[in-house]
Automatic annotation (TrEMBL):
Pfam families per UniProt: Beta-lactamase (PF00144)
Record keyword Secreted present: no
All residue ranges annotated as the Beta-lactamase-related domain in the record: 17-263
SUPFAM superfamilies in the cross-refs: beta-lactamase/transpeptidase-like (SSF56601)
Keywords annotated in UniProt: Hydrolase
Example of a GO MF term: hydrolase activity
Protein name in UniProt: Serine hydrolase domain-containing protein
Keyword Hydrolase: yes
Signal peptide: none
């Protein structure tokens, strides 16, 4: 029995019309797939991983630094990436608290960050993303027609290439990625939309770091060193360096109670191997 076999029941059990998934190993090999790997899905907040990676490239190119001022008064690029700049959740929201005091998951912060990159480089963010991340990785089916926080579109085949990059980086130095997945501003509590409060709510530079905790969307077998993101559109991507595995799962039913029931056993099966 394959690790991804449970997906076959999602349409009947949960009313999920289309799902595409892939499991990737540290050498970049796609060892298992389910569904049409070339079917295009809305990524929702999984888009943030691509945006964050473009920012990491810009940091290595010294277009700006983590400590540079960006966003509301007192905030920096680091605050924006780590959801601690003080903005509220929604696009267009104002700052609701001082930078560094709370972890408030914020689309607005990511959008402001993308705008900052455009301002300092003189390159439209969508173009920068293509040139810095998508083209080098051969992600020809991925696009950003909407918000840098939640407006990307892609396929499982394309995101498998990105997942391989997260396990074994080629576009950036390993040290840069290690810094990005380190917890920044540790100890801050907050609410992970759709799942509730985590204390602490750990985040790196664009990467969620709450894995292997009770009630988490990725189950219990994944390691605490894992990092990734899920999207409200019914999508997720995680990379687990301890297990040398990554998983991409894209669907076209919005995140909800079904995801909380379906995703944990799927990840547990991927980590545990075919049963």
């Amino acid at each position: 029995m394959s690790a991804l076999a449970g997906i076959d029941d999602w349409e009947q059990l949960w009313g999920v019309p289309n799902t595409s998934a892939a499991v990737i190993t540290a050498d970049g090999t796609v060892v298992e797939t389910r569904g049409d790997q070339d079917h295009e899905f809305a990524l929702a907040s999984v888009t943030k991983l691509l945006t964050a990676y473009a920012v990491l490239v810009a940091l290595e190119e010294e277009a700006f630094a983590l400590s540079d001022a960006a966003g509301p008064e007192g905030a920096t690029v680091e605050h924006l990436l780590a959801h601690t700049a003080g903005y509220g959740f929604d696009s267009g929201s104002a700052a609701v608290t001082r930078p560094g005091s709370r972890r408030i998951y914020s689309n607005q912060g990511i959008e402001v960050l993308a705008g900052h990159l455009t301002e300092v480089t003189g390159i439209d963010f969508g173009t920068y993303l293509i040139e810095a991340v998508l083209t080098p990785l051969g992600m020809t089916a991925t696009s950003l027609p909407g918000s840098p926080a939640a407006g990307g579109r892609s396929t499982a085949a394309d995101l498998a290439k990105f997942a391989a990059e997260l396990l074994n980086p080629r576009l950036i130095d390993r040290q840069t990625l290690d810094e990005a997945v380190r917890v920044h501003f540790p100890g801050l509590s907050g609410i992970l939309p759709g799942l509730g409060r985590f204390d602490p709510l750990d985040w790196g530079l664009g990467f969620e770091r709450n894995f292997a905790r009770p009630g988490h969307w990725a189950g219990t077998q994944i390691s605490q060193q894992a990092f990734g993101h899920f999207g409200a559109g019914g999508t997720f991507l995680w990379a687990d360096p301890d297990h040398g595995l990554a998983c991409v799962c894209l669907s076209d039913r919005d995140f909800g109670d079904w995801s909380k029931q379906a995703w944990p056993p799927l990840t547990d099966a991927v980590i545990g191997g075919p049963g």
